[in-house]
Design goal:
There is one protein chain. Helices cover 55% and strands 15% of the residues. By secondary structure, it is of the alpha+beta class. The strands form 2 sheets. It has a two-stranded antiparallel sheet. Strands 3-4 form a two-stranded antiparallel ribbon. A hairpin with a 5-residue loop joins strand 1 and strand 2. It starts with a helix and ends with a strand.
């Protein structure tokens, strides 16, 4: 199958598949008479595995590391999955903190104040305190229409 066929079957963009080939993550089975890269079922399997590992939070660099060894990948994969879990938990904690700040901001400013009024552009000056509190100043400006 050509790179276009592989792309259609996997949903992975052609540019990405070419990068995977350049990085040694997938191998072409040769070239066609028109000099197109040709791929076999092994490449299809590899692209699907790469997608699964990316879906588990592994970076392309980590996946490349797994392919650069002759040793069993199980122990290293388990370690990389632990790192991915830790990264994911840190992102979740950061998102929870963002949600908490959104809730706090909305609680501090009634819905009418946040909605604004038509024809008036409210410029908000937000000041982030050292304790991560947000101070808000409102500056009303009329829209100038030609």
């Amino acid at each position: 199958m050509t790179v276009g066929d592989l792309s259609r079957r996997t949903g992975v963009p052609i540019k990405t598949l070419r990068q995977y080939t350049d990085w040694g993550l997938i191998y072409s089975a040769g070239r066609s008479s028109a000099n197109y890269r040709l791929f076999d079922a092994d490449a299809l399997w590899c692209v699907e595995l790469i997608g699964q590992l990316r879906g588990l939070g592994l970076t392309v660099a980590e996946i490349r590391e797994l392919t650069d060894t002759d040793a069993a990948i199980g122990p290293r994969l388990a370690e990389l999955l632990r790192h991915s879990r830790a990264r994911t938990l840190r992102r979740i904690a950061g998102l929870r903190e963002t949600l908490r700040r959104i809730d706090e901001f909305e609680a501090d400013h009634n819905s009418r104040e946040l909605a604004g009024r038509g024809g008036v552009c409210k410029r908000l000056t937000l000041t982030l305190g050292s304790d991560h509190t947000v101070a808000v100043e409102h500056h009303n400006h009329r829209k100038v229409r030609p």
